[in-house]
Amino acid sequence: MFVSKYSNPEFSPYDDDSVPETSVPGNWPAPTVSHALSASLSLPGSKSLTNRELVLAALADGPSRLHAPLHSRDSALMIEALRALGVTINEIATGNVFGPDLVVTPGELEGGSSIDCGLAGTVMRFLPPVAALALGPVAFDGDHAALRRPMRTTIDSLRALGVDVSDDGRGTLPFSLYGMGSVAGGEITIDASASSQFVSGLLLTAARFDQGLTLRHSGEKLPSMPHIEMTVACLAARGVIVDSPEPGVWVVPASPIRAIDVWLEPDLSNAAPFLAAAVVAGGTVTIEGWPASTTQVGADLEQLLPLFGATATRGDGALTIDGGTGVIGGTTYPGIELDLSTGGELAPTIIALAALASSPSTITGIGHLRGHETDRLAALCTEINALGGAVTELDDGVRIEPRKLRGGVWHSYDDHRMSTAGAVIGLAIEGIEIEGIDATAKTLPQFPALWATLVGEAPPTSDTLGLL
Ligand SMILES: O=C(O)C1=C[C@@H](OP(=O)(O)O)[C@@H](O)[C@H](O)C1
Ligand SMILES: C=C(OP(=O)(O)O)C(=O)O
């Protein structure tokens, strides 16, 4: 039997003889715990806020300082792309273990570049409208895994705004556009049912269009509303007041975007697997620096994790989840019925917890996760079922039946939230090896180091936390 070096078989209620015999080189053995947790962690800045503030600072009327921004693959791709478009971005060391502050100085936007979007939805959906303001051609491409993410709405909306876009008709990366130095703006209708980022991308730049923008969403659903509200709030902080006269309509006035200094909040969606660990292992996990109020959908974890029998407490700028004795200590919790359309990026963690529940769960409102870093519904079904689970895909979600799980290789599909969902299950199930833990570099390069701290394996050091 393969036994993770962190595991203690005595405490696993899911012991099974069919775990793999040997470890696969390069895979990350997910730590299994045999004790209740008592961890307090700080996390780096929010991906969604950092990449919005980078874009807004690049379009602003002077230099902006970003304090405590995220430094990860997604933010690095955004920084490189903005530099290629003529924006100056300098680092200022502050002693923050998660990396330097950034000073963003706008410049005249120039074309002639090729932008690597990697696998970052925020780069591929936020930057084409910015590039349309540049003078000259700008090409957009990305990772192989990115070439299936929906981009048709971005392409069509730019064309509706009069921008010259060349693509191969598939509605995905790669494509290119020819910026004319300005965009007239006006009124357009788009279908953003595949991603809220189509709306956010247009809103972020629209104040710089000659006539601003009236944007209408026409489609059967609109996922991730909190992320659109985050965009509107970031614009408001820079003096651009977006009116929403009715649901699905936004009016952005032509207006300067003010240069301001901003403090980035920690990434609350990246807190999800750490806080969920308390549910599985028992004991407490505290995330420091939890904002008193926020536009991040990760704030919903305070209400979501108690659905799994945990207790959430806020105080002293922190959120603590107490999982009692946890799954490994014998706690059972019933499955849940949940519409997660507002917080799709929390779904992989929630589904991992549901896979350890004692009765069935149905998670809906997340059909659009098929267009995320991977088809997350298919990936979660495949990986949980390969461990002995019983997850089925629905039109817009998944149904999870309780099953005794066993160890095995958990594939990440280049998706950071698949890697971390596997780690959550791995706390209770011996012998789970994560293939592709490096995917966590997309938004949290320190994940393996922080997870080791969480389970009490190693204290954090500037070497382990500062890695990029
Ligand atoms: O605007 C953003 O920062 C994001 C919006 C959401 O995208 P979708 O609406 O495509 O789910 C979310 O899932 C993603 O992680 C980040
Ligand atoms: C969907 C996600 O990312 P992206 O910003 O690449 O869309 C995510 O982080 O869960």
TrEMBL record:
It catalyses: 3-phosphoshikimate + phosphoenolpyruvate = 5-O-(1-carboxyvinyl)-3-phosphoshikimate + phosphate. Keywords: Amino-acid biosynthesis, Aromatic amino acid biosynthesis, Cytoplasm, Transferase. Pathway: Metabolic intermediate biosynthesis; chorismate biosynthesis; chorismate from D-erythrose 4-phosphate and phosphoenolpyruvate: step 6/7. Residues 34-448 form the Enolpyruvate transferase domain. GO terms for cellular component: cytoplasm. One of its GO terms (molecular function) is 3-phosphoshikimate 1-carboxyvinyltransferase activity. It is an enzyme of class 2 (transferase). NCBIfam families: aroA (TIGR01356). Belongs to the EPSP synthase family. This is 3-phosphoshikimate 1-carboxyvinyltransferase. The lineage of its organism: Bacteria, Bacillati, Actinomycetota, Actinomycetes, Micrococcales.
